[in-house]
C-alpha cells in the first residue's frame, strides 16, 4: 500500500473515532448537565417552599361533585374531570404552599354570591381537614414556613372576585376571620365599586378604576392584612389600587402584556409601579395569556410551551425586578396548559428552565417563595401599624341607590340608607 494512502486511511479512521466519541460524549454531558440542573431545582424546592398563587380545584369540586368530598379521593387522579391537581401530582411537583381559590360566578352578584363564596371557603377547609397528613391550613407567612418545615402543603384561601363581599365591609371582615388572605378585587365583571379587565377593551366607563367605596375596600384590606390581588382588574383599577394601598399588592395569576397582548395580562407601565410598590406578579400558565401577539409562535391560543412561560418570568424580572416574580399557575381554572407544564406535577421542570436561563440561586428562591413571603410579611406589618395608629374598621359608605336597582331584587334593608 502506498504510504500516502495509508496516512489517509489512518486519518480517516481517527476522524471517525473522534466523531463517534463526540456523538456519545456530548449528549451524555448535556444529559448530565440537565440532570444536574434538575437535581438543583429540586434541591432549591426542598429549601424554599414553592408558593403557587392560584389553583381552582375547589371550583372543580363544586361543579362536578357538589362539594361532597366523600365522592372523591384526592390520593388518586380524579375521574370526574381532567384536572390538573391531586395529592400525588402536588407532591411530585414539590408544591410547598397553595392558595386555593374561593371563586364564584359573576352571575351571583346582587344575588347569592356571599353564600357561594362561604361554601367554597368551607370546602377548602374541609379538604384540608380530610387530608391532615398532606395539607395544613395556614393564615400567616410564618404559618407557611412552619407547614413547609413539617412536610405539609401550606393551604391558604384567596377569594376570587370583589362581587363576593356584596358591597359589605362586614362580609369582607368575616372572610378575613374565616382565613381568607387575599381577595381578587374583581373577577371578569365590574362590581359597583371596581372595574374589571374587560373595561380595557369594552368600556362601560363605570368608575374608570375604583370608586371612593372601592378605595375604602383597599384601605380596609390593608388594615385587616388581607392581600390586594389585582389579577382580573382593569388597568385603571390597578393604578387606583396602587395609588391607595399602603401594603405591597399581588397579582395572584397574571402574565406580561408586552409578550402576549391579552387584557388579562399586566402592562409594563403597571409592572414598573409594582416594582416601586414592592409587590409580586405570580405568572399565569394559561396558554391564552402566554402565547399570543406580539410574540406568538403559533396562531393557536390553546398551545404554548414551558419556555414561553419562562419568557414571561424573564420579562417580569427585567421590568419589575427578580423580587417581583412568582408562580400563579391557575391550574384547574384553565382548560389548556402549556406543553411541559401539563399539571401540578411539572413545577420542577419550570424551575430547571430558570436555572438553565442563568437565574441565580437567590432569584430562583425568590420566585419560588421568598418574594411572596416578603410581600405577605410586609402586609402583616402594615396591618399591625394601621391598627396601632388607631385606624378603625370601616362602615357603610355605599349609598343605597348606587347598585343597579334592576338587578337589586334580592335585597332587604335592616334600616337606614346604606349597606354595611
Ligand atoms: Zn382567575
Amino acid at each position: 500500500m502506498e504510504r500516502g494512502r495509508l496516512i489517509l486511511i489512518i486519518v480517516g479512521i481517527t476522524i471517525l473515532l473522534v466523531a463517534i466519541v463526540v456523538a456519545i460524549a456530548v449528549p451524555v454531558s448535556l444529559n448530565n448537565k440537565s440532570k444536574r440542573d434538575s437535581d438543583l431545582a429540586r434541591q432549591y424546592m426542598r429549601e424554599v417552599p414553592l408558593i403557587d398563587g392560584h389553583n381552582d380545584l375547589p371550583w372543580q369540586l363544586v361543579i362536578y361533585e357538589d362539594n361532597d368530598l366523600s365522592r372523591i379521593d384526592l390520593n388518586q387522579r380524579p375521574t370526574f374531570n381532567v384536572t390538573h391537581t391531586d395529592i400525588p401530582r402536588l407532591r411530585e411537583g414539590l408544591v410547598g404552599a397553595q392558595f386555593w381559590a374561593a371563586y364564584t360566578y359573576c352571575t351571583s352578584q346582587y344575588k347569592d354570591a356571599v353564600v357561594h363564596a362561604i361554601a367554597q371557603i368551607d370546602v377548602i377547609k374541609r379538604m384540608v381537614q380530610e387530608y391532615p397528613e398532606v395539607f395544613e391550613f395556614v393564615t400567616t407567612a410564618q404559618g407557611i414556613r412552619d407547614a413547609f418545615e413539617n412536610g405539609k402543603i401550606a393551604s391558604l384561601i384567596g377569594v376570587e372576585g370583589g362581587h363576593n363581599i356584596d358591597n359589605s365591609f362586614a362580609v369582607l371582615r368575616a372572610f378575613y376571620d374565616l382565613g381568607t388572605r387575599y381577595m381578587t378585587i374583581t373577577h371578569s365583571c365590574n362590581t359597583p365599586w371596581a372595574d374589571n379587565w374587560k373595561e380595557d377593551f369594552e368600556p362601560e366607563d363605570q368608575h374608570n378604576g375604583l370608586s371612593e367605596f372601592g378605595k375604602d375596600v383597599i384601605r380596609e384590606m390593608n388594615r385587616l392584612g388581607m392581600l390586594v390581588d389585582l389579577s382580573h382588574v382593569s388597568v385603571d383599577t390597578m393604578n387606583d389600587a396602587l395609588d391607595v394601598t399602603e401594603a405591597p399588592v399581588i397579582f395572584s395569576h397574571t402574565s406580561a402584556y408586552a409578550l402576549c397582548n391579552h387584557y388579562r395580562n399586566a402592562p409594563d407601565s403597571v409592572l414598573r409601579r409594582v416594582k416601586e410598590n414592592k409587590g409580586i406578579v405570580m405568572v399565569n400558565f394559561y396558554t391564552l395569556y402566554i402565547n399570543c401577539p406580539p410574540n406568538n409562535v403559533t396562531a393557536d391560543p390553546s398551545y404554548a410551551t414551558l419556555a414561553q412561560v419562562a419568557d414571561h418570568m424573564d420579562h417580569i424580572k427585567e421590568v419589575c425586578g427578580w423580587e417581583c416574580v412568582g408562580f400563579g399557575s391557575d391550574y384547574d381554572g384553565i382548560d389548556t396548559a402549556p406543553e411541559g407544564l401539563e399539571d401540578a406535577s411539572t413545577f420542577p421542570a419550570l424551575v430547571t428552565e430558570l436555572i438553565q436561563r442563568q437565574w441565580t440561586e437567590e432569584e430562583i428562591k425568590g420566585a419560588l417563595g421568598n418574594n411572596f413571603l416578603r410581600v405577605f410579611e410586609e402586609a402583616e406589618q402594615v396591618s399591625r401599624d394601621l391598627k396601632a395608629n388607631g385606624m378603625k374598621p370601616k362602615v357603610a359608605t355605599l349609598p343605597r341607590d348606587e347598585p343597579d336597582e334592576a338587578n337589586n331584587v334580592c335585597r332587604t334593608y335592616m334600616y337606614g340608607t346604606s349597606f354595611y
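The chain has a mean pLDDT of 91. The two ends are 103 Å apart (CA to CA).
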